[in-house]
Amino acid sequence: MIQAINDNIFIELDEQIRTTKSGIILADTAIKERPRTGKVLSVGRDNNGINQGDRILYKKYEFKNIEIENKKCVYGKVKDVLAVIPEDMKIEGQAEHF
Fold first, then answer.
1. What whole-number distance in Å separates Cα of residue 72 and Cα of residue 54?
2. Would you call 93 helix, strand, or coil by DSSP?
3. How far is Cα 58 from Cα 43, in angstroms, rounded to an integer?
4. Is 47 helix (H, G, I), strand (E, B) or coil?
5. What is the DSSP-derived secondary structure letter of residue 49?
């Protein structure tokens, strides 16, 4: 597995919602957005209390796309993480262009 150093962080993106509230299934080509939330795969030693496995919300333009072991991921700086999300909390309105 990848190991972040210093103040870097690697995040596996959350799965996208593939159905509308009314139950309509969306095709992959119809989904133009990506989530701004994900699970921390690796975080460097300057982690500001963020740990591997945490689910987080991050700034939309500060992270770069990368694929790790066939998973859509992003990487960036710990300072650009906005919040650690409790396991039982649902975040809506979290999309942006991939």
1. 17
2. coil
3. 14
4. coil
5. T
Q: Which residue has the tokens 């700034």?
A: 59
**Tokens (6 digits) for 18:** 């593939």
Reported as a pLDDT band with limits 50, 70 and 90, residue 97 is very low
Largest CA distance in the chain: 45
25-49 pLDDT, tens digit per residue, is 766 565 555 568 999 999 999 999 9
| pTM for the predicted model, two decimal places | 0.77
Q: Quick one: tokens of 85?
A: 């999300």
What per-residue confidence (pLDDT) applies to 14? 86
Q: How many CA atoms lie within 13 A of 63 on its CB side?
A: 32
